[in-house]
User: Which sequence fits this backbone?
């Protein structure tokens, strides 16, 4: 139903979200013809950071022995890479930075429930990382034409990982006043939370699907219409690799040919913030994207957040 045939899981102790991000960054930096010392800003998108804090951006800066540059962490889950790309685009266009490293990396496997109880979520997610380097250009046929970011937090808990967190049951039906100070102090992470398997992601798959198939086409058409294009002009649409059925539904609704949509979810599962840069990289490596092609990127995920570029 999801289209997934294979997934990759990072080594439990030898690999982290940061180390995978470093490997992807090294490839992107080399292909850009620069060195880590040339990078002047880092934007790191992930929902699975190495630490609760600090974020992965500074850990990558340290691992790659970069200069004392700024590092920004983006927490927009499946839309994270496109949000990060949009931020980087603004910095490039204002002339503030010249070589921006944008990374999407996820190590989902450390936080998934591999029992039967968790199968509806665990079957979907895999680990991976992708990265791009953004630089300024005077060529009118290259670059990011526009980016479009949206959110609606009304149903935030439909796809969320509540614990550990600082909410102290604020969003539940149990008033915080019903708990004494000692109990509230244990709500960040307690034996009860662990015993009740409340440390794993929560998802209402049907509700997410229904929202995604509306917002995906909307945000794709928004990016096309703003720039005076139609779906026929797209060389390749690279959607966030959430679910093959969602991608197929979007393709059908927009009347796109098979060769206009790139999917690789069958190999990796849903790698959230990493899925678009991984797919973008593979499409380019396979010759499906060439100089001058019009490429549309789109994502929908937890929050809810959705975006296109």
Assistant:
């Amino acid at each position: 139903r999801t289209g997934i045939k294979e997934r990759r899981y990072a080594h439990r102790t030898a690999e982290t979200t940061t180390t995978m991000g470093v490997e992807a960054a090294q490839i992107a930096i080399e292909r850009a013809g620069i060195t880590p010392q040339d990078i002047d800003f880092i934007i790191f998108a992930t929902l699975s950071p190495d630490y609760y804090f600090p974020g992965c951006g500074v850990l990558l800066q340290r691992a790659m022995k970069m200069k004392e540059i700024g590092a920004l962490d983006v927490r927009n889950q499946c839309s994270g890479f496109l949000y990060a790309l949009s931020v980087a685009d603004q910095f490039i266009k204002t002339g503030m930075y010249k070589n921006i490293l944008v990374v999407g990396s996820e190590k989902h496997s450390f936080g998934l429930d591999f029992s039967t109880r968790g199968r509806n979520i665990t079957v979907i997610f895999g680990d991976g990382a992708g990265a791009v380097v953004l630089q300024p250009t005077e060529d009118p046929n290259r670059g990011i034409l526009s980016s479009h970011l949206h959110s609606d937090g009304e149903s935030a808990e439909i796809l969320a990982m509540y614990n550990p967190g600082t909410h102290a049951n604020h969003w539940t039906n149990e008033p915080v006043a019903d708990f004494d100070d000692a109990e509230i102090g244990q709500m960040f992470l307690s034996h009860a939370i662990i015993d009740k398997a409340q440390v794993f992601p929560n998802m209402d798959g049907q509700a997410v699907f229904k929202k995604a198939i509306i917002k995906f086409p909307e945000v794709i058409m928004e990016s096309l219409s703003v720039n005076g294009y139609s779906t026929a002009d797209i060389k390749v649409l690279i959607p966030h690799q959430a679910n093959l059925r969602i991608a197929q539904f979007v393709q059908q609704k927009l009347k796109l040919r098979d060769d206009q949509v790139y999917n690789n979810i069958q190999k990796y599962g849903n790698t959230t913030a990493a899925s678009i840069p991984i797919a973008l990289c593979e499409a380019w490596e396979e010759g499906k994207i060439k100089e001058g092609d019009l490429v549309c990127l789109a994502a929908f995920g937890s929050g809810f957040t959705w975006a296109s570029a």
About this structure: DSSP finds ten helices and ten strands in the chain.
